């Protein structure tokens, strides 16, 4: 299957930082990629309660709760992994209709048009020294800020493969969040209700 694959450089985190790092990454990607299919004023700047960093996310409780559920599941899969390394994938899909057998009926299929991958390296032994811990957190904040800037830049540059806005506003925008350390994949048609309730907006150039 042909789709755009965006690989982010890995991040080294402590177990208690996994969820917050995933929040920053996933909300930033979702906000950038759905922008244009929903009103751009439905967003808020979120200040991290754990790290000295902020990010944009949709100001919608349905979105927030759905992402939190996936973050919780991915974090648990990483916590139970035999190796302290795991890749998290965020894939976007478009729904298309194609002719079924003998052309008697239409069959709906999901076509992946973009996938984001990020590897988290979880330290098995937390840093104990106060000065070393402060230095490690400052380094994580700097590297995470770089990843967020990379996401914004890549979303602005890579547009040729995006599905038509008309199809995104007509159907649900589906995505899946998966952790490679778990056999489970968590999918959600997150924006169906929101898209049905709001008119499509032109894409931001």
From TrEMBL:
One of its GO terms (biological process) is autophagosome assembly. GO terms for molecular function: protein kinase binding. Keywords: Autophagy. The keyword Flavoprotein does not apply. GO terms for cellular component: Atg1/ULK1 kinase complex; phagophore assembly site. Belongs to the ATG101 family. PANTHER family: AUTOPHAGY-RELATED PROTEIN 101 (PTHR13292:SF0). This is Autophagy-related protein 101. It comes from Diacronema lutheri (Unicellular marine alga).
């Amino acid at each position: 299957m042909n789709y755009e694959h965006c690989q982010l450089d890995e991040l080294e985190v402590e177990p208690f930082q996994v969820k917050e790092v995933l929040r920053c990454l996933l909300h930033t990607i979702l906000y950038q990629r759905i922008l244009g299919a929903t009103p751009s004023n439905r967003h808020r700047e979120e200040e991290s309660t754990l790290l000295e960093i902020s990010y944009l996310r949709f100001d919608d409780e349905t979105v927030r709760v759905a992402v939190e559920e996936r973050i919780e599941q991915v974090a648990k899969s990483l916590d139970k992994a035999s190796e302290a390394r795991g890749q998290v994938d965020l894939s976007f899909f478009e729904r298309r209709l194609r002719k079924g057998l003998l052309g008697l009926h239409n069959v709906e299929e999901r076509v992946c048009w973009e996938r984001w991958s990020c590897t988290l390296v979880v330290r098995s032994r937390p840093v104990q020294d106060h000065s070393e811990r402060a230095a490690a957190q400052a380094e994580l904040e700097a590297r995470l800020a770089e990843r967020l800037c990379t996401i914004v830049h890549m979303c602005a540059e890579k547009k040729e493969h995006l599905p038509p806005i008309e199809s995104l506003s007509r159907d649900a925008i589906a995505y899946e969040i998966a952790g490679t350390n778990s056999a489970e994949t968590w999918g959600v048609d997150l924006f169906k209700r929101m898209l049905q309730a709001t008119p499509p907006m032109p894409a931001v150039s």
